[in-house]
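Exercise 7 asks you to align residues with tokens for two separate proteins.
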Amino acid sequence: MSLKLSYTLISPIYDALIARATQKMRQKSWSQMGEMAGLSVLIPGIGTGLDIPYLPKAAHYTGVDITPAMLHRARKKANQQNLPVDLKEGDILALSLPDQSFDRVVMHLILAVVPSPQLALQEAARVLKPGGRIMILDKFIQPGENAWVRRIANSLLRHIATRTDVIFEEVLAGVPALQVVNDEPLMAGGWFRRIELQKQATRIG
């Protein structure tokens, strides 16, 4: 089953399944973003817009998702919050956005969903300005961790909604322009982590 079809089918119940379980993590992550006034912020995989209630109103937001049914619900949330968000249908593995066009990229619960998390992170780095930051919130297996239950569960879940076998350090290894600024556990014994990355400034000469 394709990711687009899967999320189209679950979009009517997605918030009921996910919203309460992730609310505190999302709220905490946005509260740690720092000064956002005037910044251009990309939210790839914005889904139904569960992040929208926590967005600082002084920034400029672009949200991308592959599923129109999810974007429809995100648009409703943005209207309810009276918050202008430029919502676009698109594949975050191949963003139709120019290089170095955003100050921040926020990837909440998306790297463990897409079929190629490394490509998603590479695209995020491409559209990020030098010195800009990527904020990640997701579930990752630690390097060398057995986690056999999560690995077995992944064989089923990856075809429905999410992956449970992603190792962040392996994903990051393919994006050398990014450096870890902060990495903290949030819940489930450190399975969920909030990771902040910074894109190195382009060297001249």
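Second protein for Exercise 7:
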Amino acid sequence: MTRAATFLLALAAAAAMVAGCSGTAGADRPTVVVTTNILGDVTHNIVGDDIDVRVLMPPGADPHSFQISAAQAARIESADLLISNGLGLEEGIAHTVQAARSEGVPILEVAPQVNPIPFDTHGDSAALDPHFWTDPDRVAAATESIRDAVVRHVPGVDRAAIDDRADAYVDRISDLTTAMTALFDSIPAESRRLVTNHHVFGYFAERFGFEVIGAVVPSGTTLASPSSADLAELSEAVRTSGVGAIFVDSSQPSKLADVLAKESGERVEVIELFTESLGDAGSGASSYLEMMETNATRITEGLK
């Protein structure tokens, strides 16, 4: 056997040992599977390292269109608890969630637990809005729902430790809300108007006193497409309202928003926000709290 072949065999054996150790470590702990990375971050803050939290959607994923692999679907079926956003957000994996329910996996759908509001869109008024995380107060309520579900369904958890971490995280969310409110106080009331890539800021607008003028895609899902009439109507609304910025999601192409900005007036700026998903490390949105701070700063700078 050549020296190179011996070296490659040694590498393969080492990799197999690492994989075996990793699998054993995961098997020693109960497992919670979370669909979105935003809820995954919240769950991590509640359970710490006591539970193996497996998040399906990577940073930058669009929850409306995200699909999972067969291996991820198998992990769901063996989980002690599945945490999903609900209210139709995870359109690409709805069938997988339903299959897990049929197999008896305990499921917490978070959005229905936090007093959801209807969409303020054309034709969607009867549907409930799944984008609750744009209101930090509702994320605080979601924290409590997740804590209770973990304690109820995951075996062997330390209730006192879970409570302490959840309480500490709710306190940090409260500090976030205070900081966001202070930032937004610098925006004149007549400038608190939002145009977005799609309808994602209903909860945010209700909580912080903004008005949603409209969206490039007049729907609560990124899978819909605007008609020429929709764009013409929104372009006119942007011109008459004096909106100076259009906010688009960092995970979605901004081409339509760029076209709308050009039609509405050259002074209209297109600004990226993290609305549907966390970002990578260093993006300014690697956690829920960081994401909201970044968005609040960009919204304030865009509207002042």
